[in-house]
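**Backbone geometry record:**
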Amino acid sequence: MQPTNATLNDDSGNQDDDDEPDEWDQRIINTGCHEENLKLQLCHADTGDWRQCTKEMEAFRKCWDEHNNNMRTSTVNNTDA
Protein backbone atom coordinates (compact mmCIF):
# COMPACT_ATOMS: atom_id res chain seq x y z
CA MET A 1 0.00 0.00 0.00
CA GLN A 2 1.38 3.41 -1.01
CA PRO A 3 1.46 6.11 1.66
CA THR A 4 -0.99 8.94 1.10
CA ASN A 5 -0.27 12.62 1.56
CA ALA A 6 -2.17 12.43 4.82
CA THR A 7 0.13 9.72 6.19
CA LEU A 8 3.25 11.38 4.81
CA ASN A 9 2.36 14.65 6.50
CA ASP A 10 1.18 13.10 9.76
CA ASP A 11 3.78 14.00 12.36
CA SER A 12 1.40 13.62 15.28
CA GLY A 13 3.37 13.32 18.44
CA ASN A 14 6.64 14.01 16.63
CA GLN A 15 6.42 17.66 15.74
CA ASP A 16 7.52 20.72 17.61
CA ASP A 17 5.00 23.49 17.97
CA ASP A 18 6.39 25.88 15.35
CA ASP A 19 4.15 28.65 16.65
CA GLU A 20 6.12 28.79 19.89
CA PRO A 21 9.56 30.44 19.91
CA ASP A 22 12.45 28.20 20.85
CA GLU A 23 14.82 29.13 23.70
CA TRP A 24 17.13 31.16 21.46
CA ASP A 25 14.27 33.10 19.86
CA GLN A 26 12.77 33.79 23.27
CA ARG A 27 16.06 35.26 24.46
CA ILE A 28 16.09 37.60 21.46
CA ILE A 29 12.45 38.54 22.05
CA ASN A 30 13.25 39.30 25.70
CA THR A 31 15.80 41.92 24.63
CA GLY A 32 13.01 44.00 23.11
CA CYS A 33 15.02 44.16 19.88
CA HIS A 34 13.81 41.11 18.02
CA GLU A 35 12.59 43.10 15.00
CA GLU A 36 15.92 44.90 14.68
CA ASN A 37 17.73 41.59 15.08
CA LEU A 38 15.64 39.99 12.35
CA LYS A 39 16.31 42.87 9.95
CA LEU A 40 20.03 42.59 10.66
CA GLN A 41 20.03 38.81 10.13
CA LEU A 42 18.06 39.15 6.88
CA CYS A 43 20.42 41.83 5.62
CA HIS A 44 23.39 39.57 6.25
CA ALA A 45 21.62 36.63 4.63
CA ASP A 46 20.80 38.73 1.56
CA THR A 47 24.23 40.35 1.18
CA GLY A 48 26.59 37.85 2.80
CA ASP A 49 28.56 40.84 4.11
CA TRP A 50 28.04 42.47 7.50
CA ARG A 51 29.72 45.64 6.18
CA GLN A 52 26.70 46.22 3.95
CA CYS A 53 24.35 46.15 6.94
CA THR A 54 25.57 49.20 8.85
CA LYS A 55 22.10 50.80 8.92
CA GLU A 56 20.59 47.64 10.41
CA MET A 57 23.47 47.23 12.85
CA GLU A 58 23.10 50.81 14.06
CA ALA A 59 19.35 50.34 14.57
CA PHE A 60 20.03 47.15 16.56
CA ARG A 61 22.69 48.87 18.71
CA LYS A 62 20.37 51.81 19.39
CA CYS A 63 17.57 49.46 20.44
CA TRP A 64 19.97 47.39 22.55
CA ASP A 65 21.15 50.50 24.40
CA GLU A 66 17.61 51.88 24.83
CA HIS A 67 16.56 48.64 26.52
CA ASN A 68 19.65 48.58 28.80
CA ASN A 69 20.52 45.12 27.57
CA ASN A 70 24.22 45.38 28.46
CA MET A 71 23.25 45.67 32.12
CA ARG A 72 20.60 42.95 31.86
CA THR A 73 22.80 40.45 30.04
CA SER A 74 25.78 41.01 32.34
CA THR A 75 23.73 39.59 35.21
CA VAL A 76 22.13 36.63 33.38
CA ASN A 77 23.53 33.35 34.72
CA ASN A 78 26.04 35.35 36.71
CA THR A 79 26.46 33.82 40.16
CA ASP A 80 28.28 36.96 41.41
CA ALA A 81 25.29 39.25 40.83
